Amino acid sequence: MRILRALAGNFMGASPRWYKLTIMSFLIANPILLAVFGPFFTGWTLVAQFIFTLAMALKCYPLQPGGLLTIEAVVMGMASPDKVYMEAQNNFPVILLVIFMVASIYFMKGLLLYIFSAVLVRIRSKTAISLMFCLLGAFLSAFLDALTVTAALMAVASGFYSVYHRYISSLHADGDHDHSDDSKVENDHREDLYEFRGFLRNILMHGAVGTALGGVTTLVGEPQNLLIAHVMKWTFGQFFVNMAPVTMPALAVGLLTCVVVEKFKIFGYGYQLPPRAHKAMEEFAKEESAKLDLNDHARIGVQAVLAVGLIFALAFHVAEVGVIGLALLILLTALNGVTDEQRIGKAFEEALPFTALLVVFFAVVAVIQEQALFAPIIQWSMQMSGKKQLLAFFTASGLLTSVSDNVFVGTIYITEAKKAFDAGLMDRAQFDLVAVAINAGTNIPSVATPNGQAAFLFLLTSLIASLIRLSYVRMLILAFPYTVTMTGAALAAVIWLL
After folding, report:
1. Are 212 and 118 members of one domain?
2. Which range marks the domain in which residue 8 is found?
3. What is the largest CA-CA distance in the chain?
4. Label partner for 262 (CA 20 to 30 A): which of 58, 337, 338, 431?
5. 45, 78, 111: which is the final residue of a domain?
């Protein structure tokens, strides 16, 4: 009996008891649901359960509960191990990207923090700062991968939090500091810390939404863009021009939304940078500038040159993004004197748990595909014609990306559209418009949920999310105004401009 209690206590560690019981009830109920209601109903139930584990990311990292659910699904025969492996293999470029690009960004923190802390000290308007992060996310993600841009923004926010949390703690030692421990935070700073967390949540969400706004505009902005462009045989310029009637209105409305939510302090926005936090940043910027010696200047210079090289390498797609990330990692460490395994290994601490979670996510995608969960929606879209078909493709792909992988949804829809075109069911002009609707649908409405885009999921499950109390529900609320306005603008553009 004691061993059973020990096993129950070890199950999912320090997670709340109610959460442990919920996951256990899922695992017990699923075989019963499969036997009674069949694989289609159970498949959608599994998707809902997996989304629930993402929503509870601050209670327990989703890898464990989500992984248990997918292992059970494979054991029950809802997806074969080969299918899971195939999905992971199909998304191998994304896996490489997460592993190496995120690790390489770790070694650029010095440059990023140096630049952004200087900017933060000079710009006092929260609206201006928010718009800058949104614009920066949009511009960079048009040429870089959204995950790379998000990793850079997270590195900046993590640096800001580290500086301020150390500043307001009672022990200002130069050694290791536990930023998750608030016990040493002086009482008169706790309200400021609450406000500062809200401030960081705001600018990170503005930046993350910006990656979606910019990512939809170009061929290299998102993985599914490249896939759709390949099927359509569009060049970089053709892709931009064909997408512009939808992407430009969405971009303008998205930037306007950024200003409005900050001005009116709605949907969780409007948190300000506390004066004492501004003072901490100012002192940090001065101290860092004063401490810089010739070696430090050389390191920052190397990081700056490599950052510019990274932008050009990704913009011209000289190699797979993950391979470029590995090259960047090697150059950053070799040229900046980082040669010990311990420091290099620390760079992978953020990337590898998320990589494992991504593979679990691909296992859920394998269940979706093997059980044809999206089949009724796809068939409904294909039965339409003309303008109604464009609206159907945009709406359906937008809804499906909120629960699944946008690359997966984009692949299915463009494949089905290509089959219809080859069979003579639509002409080339309609095929082009359908491709625009699919690409817009898999990019813009996907900001609605954290599982809609890999960059959002990465942010939700990161260490900085737990530090600033960025939960799944908070992300939904913060994303809501953008979802409504951007999707509305894109939908209107599909109706009136395509």
Report:
1. yes
2. 1-78
3. 72
4. 58
5. 78
Residues 54 and 153 in one domain: no
Q: Is residue 191 domain-shared with residue 274, that is, in the same domain? A: yes
**436, 242 contact by CB (below 8 A):** yes
Same domain, 141 and 277: yes
Question: Is 394 within a domain?
Answer: no
What are the structure tokens assigned to 24, written together?
A: 């256990």
- DSSP labels, 213-227: HHHTTSTTSSHHHHH
Whether 385 maps to a domain, the answer reads no
H/E stretch holding 488: helix 472-496
**Rounded (10°) CA dihedral 378, 382, 387, 390:** 40
Three-state DSSP class for residue 169: strand
Same domain for 37 and 132, yes or no, is no
Global confidence as pTM: 0.86
The count of domains in the chain is: 2
Do 46 and 99 have their domain in common?
Answer: no
Q: 207 and 316 share a domain? A: yes
Residue 146 falls inside a structural domain: yes
188/259 same-domain check: yes
> How much helix, strand and coil, in percent to the nearest 5, is found in the chain?
80, 0, 20
Say whether 131 sits in a helix, a strand or coil.
Answer: helix
Reduced 3-state DSSP string for 49-110: HHHHHHHCCCCCCCHHHHHHHHHHHHHCCCCCHHHHHHHHHHCHHHHHHHHHHHHHHHCCHH
Residue with tokens 């949104």: 134
What are the residues facing 185 on neighbouring strands? 169
**Helix, coil or strand: residue 185:** strand
**pLDDT digit of tens for each residue in the chain (498 aa)?**
678 777 777 888 888 889 999 999 999 999 999 999 999 999 999 989 998 998 888 888 899 999 999 999 999 999 999 999 998 888 788 788 888 888 888 888 778 877 777 777 788 899 999 999 999 889 888 877 788 888 888 888 988 898 888 888 865 545 566 676 777 777 777 889 999 999 999 999 999 999 999 989 988 777 788 778 888 988 888 999 999 999 999 999 999 999 999 999 999 999 999 988 888 888 877 877 777 778 877 888 888 898 888 878 877 778 887 888 899 999 999 998 888 888 888 888 878 888 898 899 889 888 988 998 888 887 887 788 788 999 999 998 888 887 776 777 887 888 888 888 988 888 999 999 999 999 999 999 989 988 778 788 889 988 899 999 999 999 999 999 999 999 999 999 998 987
